[in-house]
Amino acid sequence: MAGYQPDRRDVRCRILTPAGWIEGTFRVPRIRAFVEHVAALHEFEVLTDVVFLGSGHRESFFDLCLDAAMVIVPPEGEGEPAMPIAEDKRVSREITCLLTMGQLRGRIDLVENVRISDFFRSRKGYVLLRDCRFVPNTDGTEPESEPHRSVIVRTPAIIGVTEPSGATSA
């Protein structure tokens, strides 16, 4: 007899891996925020209707090793944290994250008076960035990505983080 299976919804995402971009569908419990779901995942996650964007190759099923998922771009409305920072305690900072395949430029919401460096030293798993653009490491022939409202970044995939020159790290 099968155990309880919660009602699920499909969440179609783009995912940056060391092999390039893929697109696939996560099956997420309806009552759980997508960001919370990703943070709670284990070593592998099943995706359906997968497309390898560089080649156009398609697979109906793909078991993704989450250690290889450097960046996950959820659709509009699925990139909200389960427990957002209270508006009166939140500051938004511009940052650039260096990844092996390029730079991710966007904003991060932090509790006021928390420095970027302190935040990343204590953070494991994933972080949520807003209003991001991915700038690939190329000779300039590949353009920046279109802006993404929310992006989930796996912290071990980040080589380093910086704020724009002149920004304050309170």
Main sheet summary: 10 strands, antiparallel
Shape: globular
- Reported by name, the CATH topology of the largest domain is SH3 type barrels
Count of alpha and pi helical runs: 2
Number of discrete domains:
2
What is the end-to-end distance?
A: 56 Å
Low-confidence runs (pLDDT<50, min 5 residues)?
A: none
Arrangement of strands in the largest sheet? 4-3-2-1-5-9-8-7-6-10
Radius of gyration: 17 Å
Series of H and E elements: EEHEEEEEHEEE
Q: So, CATH architecture of the largest domain?
A: Roll
Average residue pLDDT:
86
Percent of residues in beta strands: over 45%
Give the number of DSSP strands: 10
CATH class of the largest domain: Mainly Beta
Helix content: under 10%
Find the structural class using helix and strand composition.
mainly beta
Itemize the secondary structure elements and their pairings.
Elements: E1 8-17, E2 20-29, H1 34-40, E3 44-52, E4 57-65, E5 71-73, E6 90-99, E7 102-111, H2 116-122, E8 126-136, E9 148-154, E10 160-162
Antiparallel strand pairs: 1-2, 1-5, 2-3, 3-4, 5-9, 6-7, 6-10, 7-8, 8-9
Descriptive overview:
- By secondary structure, the chain is mainly beta.
- It has 2 domains: 8-73, SH3 type barrels (Roll); 87-162, SH3 type barrels.
- It has helices spanning 34-40, 116-122, and strands spanning 8-17, 20-29, 44-52, 57-65, 71-73, 90-99, 102-111, 126-136, 148-154, 160-162.
- Strand 1 (8-17) and strand 2 (20-29) form a beta hairpin.
- The termini are far apart.
- 24% of the residues are buried.
